[in-house]
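mind reviewing these tokens:
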Amino acid sequence: MLLYWILLPIVWVLAHIIWRFEVIGRENLKAVRDGRAYVIAPNHIANLDPVFVAITVFDWKRLRILAKEELFKNPLAGWFLRCMGAVAIERGKGDTTIVEKLTNECKNGTGIMVFPEGTRTKTGKLGMIKSGAFVIAAAAGADMLPVRIIYGTKDG
């Protein structure tokens, strides 16, 4: 967990130096500022999306990120992802244990990031939405914060 508090501010600074961010609708992040429970639900285009969203909502509280189980197969990568707040879920299996755990954390004020499509889309177009983010938000009585990520490069 200490790694989270060390790396996230460094990544925040580096990302703002390297890339030009434009965040539209930051005022809608009242739940984050007020310390209320929230589920943030961004579309998913690139591997760095969780990083960009985390540094955009950065509020000195650890954000929990729902991630596919395959990312945790490598022991070093799995350790790093867990340190950064990621929680493994086996896609397509209806893993109610993880959903309950995240719901309880959300009820206690922890922000949860769930990619509602469950996977990346190469085209940037919205894919089929799954229910996980909505189930957690509803059960936790949390605000749902939809996020649209748009990359301003020629290839999207």
The mean pLDDT is 84.
